[in-house]
Design brief:
Blueprint: H1 2-35, E1 37-44, E2 57-60, H2 65-76, E3 84-88, E4 91-92, H3 97-104, E5 113-119, E6 125-131, E7 136-144, E8 149-155, E9 159-164, E10 174-180, E11 186-195, E12 200-207, E13 209-218, E14 223-231, E15 237-242, E16 248-253, E17 257-262, E18 273-278, E19 281-287, E20 290-293, E21 299-306, E22 309-314, E23 318-323, E24 328-334, E25 339-345, E26 350-355, E27 360-364, E28 375-377, E29 384-389, E30 395-400, E31 405-409, E32 417-419, E33 426-431, E34 436-441, E35 445-450
Length: 454
């Protein structure tokens, strides 16, 4: 019995020694891996003064983008130092070189790894905040000319608020005019036309009621006049879109249909229009001129892509491209979750959709197979409620019920920045110009963010 105990003791001691040897070998292997060097060649499209020699150099394979940024700063002797980002095969480096290489299987020991560097997107700065009395439901920005700019928001307090804001001229955001447009919370609106030389423009509004309204706004005397009431919806309006010619608009909502109305004053609408007195003012009441039975659940967004075609998204998990005249979908893209919002990049023929499962999906609107998602973006934690493409670059911003706004580059699988300045659900986001975007939501805060040197 004692002999058995001794033998088992010796076996246990031998096993412990083997485990220690394996652990030491593992640590030695890890150290050897970290000490490995890899030959890299830096390339860039930056100006000549920010270009390093393209001669290959050996760098530790454990380097991340921060180590590589220090190398570029050292080679260029930049003071103060700048922050650079790095692309390998068109994808941003967000892990160590070793992890990236192992995951993508793109190199062997003899290969020179080509890395493109560019200046990193500066961190957005919150420049202003305006407090609203209720939820901010929708924002449209960048409305103006070279001398004066405006941004507009709608709210659950049934009001439209117009702000004078021209960051190029160094001005602060100041209220210009506000007015009550509906009896129920406003969900969406669109600016139709503007004549800012005379400080006038038109907009249409949709709310948690069936009617859509058109207002003439005069900024000189701070007046708003209800001109038209569009009827036909059977439930609340969730989205609006103006045709490229600005001759008509479309609306979608909780009755699952897309409806179309004319905006032309000279159109003969004798049979489907009448004058009605609203708030002691005369307004023309107009019924729809065309209806598409579009989806099996509510229509969540609309985007006119040419005069004869429009894109719709829905809680029924589909994206559809419609030939308006025939009411026939010419393409259907099938998702797996309800679609809450979308925006189209015409330059890239891409549509980005935000979903109830917190994922942003990217689709090629030219693709024949409508079931294929081109790319996904995953770090939001709740509903994605708003998406806005940058006016000229490959960036877009998104906002979510998780209280965050995120900035994305198509070449990165993770956001470039996450902004946590809101205290409640963020419902809308919009670019004001190439350097400035605006967000708002359930905390009633209209926040202006600026990215310097973009």
């Amino acid at each position: 019995m004692d002999d058995n105990i001794n033998v088992n003791g010796f076996e246990e001691e031998e096993l412990q020694q083997q485990e220690q040897q394996q652990e030491q070998q593992g640590e030695q292997q890890q150290q050897q891996d970290e000490d490995k060097l890899i030959r890299v060649k830096f390339i860039t499209k930056l100006p000549v003064e920010l270009q390093v020699p393209e001669t290959p150099i050996a760098l530790p394979i454990k380097f991340t983008r921060f180590g590589l940024s220090e190398v570029i700063n050292h080679l260029l002797d930049i003071k103060p130092q700048r922050v650079f980002d790095f692309l390998i095969n068109g994808e941003f480096l967000r892990v160590s070189l070793q992890t990236f290489i192992t995951k993508n299987k793109i190199i062997d020991e003899e290969t020179v790894l080509e890395i493109e560097y560019l200046e990193a997107l500066p961190k957005p700065e919150e420049t202003e905040e305006k407090k609203i009395e209720d939820w901010i439901s929708c924002i449209e920005a960048g409305i103006g000319n070279n001398q004066s700019d405006y941004l507009i928001n709608s709210g659950y307090d049934s009001q439209i608020r117009i702000w004078k804001y021209s960051p190029k001229n160094g001005s602060n955001c100041e209220p210009a005019i506000s007015f009550i447009a509906h009896e129920e919370p406003i969900i969406t609106f669109k600016v139709i036309s503007k004549d800012l030389n005379n400080n006038q423009f038109q907009l249409i509004t949709g709310a948690k009621e069936a009617v859509i309204k058109l207002f003439n706004v005069n900024l000189t005397d701070s007046s708003s006049k209800l001109e038209k009431i569009f009827i036909g919806n059977q439930d609340s309006t969730s989205c609006l879109s103006i045709s490229p010619s600005k001759s008509r608009f479309a609306a979608g909502g909780w009755d699952n249909h897309i409806r179309f109305w004319s905006l032309n004053d000279n159109t003969n609408q004798t049979s489907n229009s009448k004058r009605t007195r609203t708030n002691n003012k005369q307004a023309t009441q107009i019924t729809e001129e065309h209806v598409i039975k579009a989806h099996s659940q509510s229509v969540s967004s609309l985007k006119w892509i040419e005069e004869s075609k429009i894109i719709s998204t829905s809680n029924d998990q589909t994206i559809r491209v419609w030939d308006i005249e025939s009411s026939i979908p010419v393409a259907t893209y099938n998702s797996t979750k309800a679609i809450i919002c979308s925006d189209v990049s015409f330059d890239q023929n891409l549509i980005a959709t935000g979903h109830a499962d917190s994922i942003i999906r990217l689709w090629d609107i030219r693709a024949k197979d409508g079931s294929i998602v081109k790319q996904t973006f995953l770090t939001h934690k709740m509903w994605v409620h708003g998406i806005a493409w940058h006016p000229t670059l490959n960036y877009f911003v998104s906002c979510s019920y998780d209280n965050t706004v995120k900035i994305w580059d198509l070449r990165s699988r993770v956001p470039l920045y996450t902004i946590n300045s809101h205290e409640d659900k963020v419902l809308s986001v919009a670019w004001h110009d190439n350097n400035t975007f605006v967000s708002g939501g359930a905390d009633g805060k209209l926040k202006i963010h600026k990215i310097n040197n973009l």
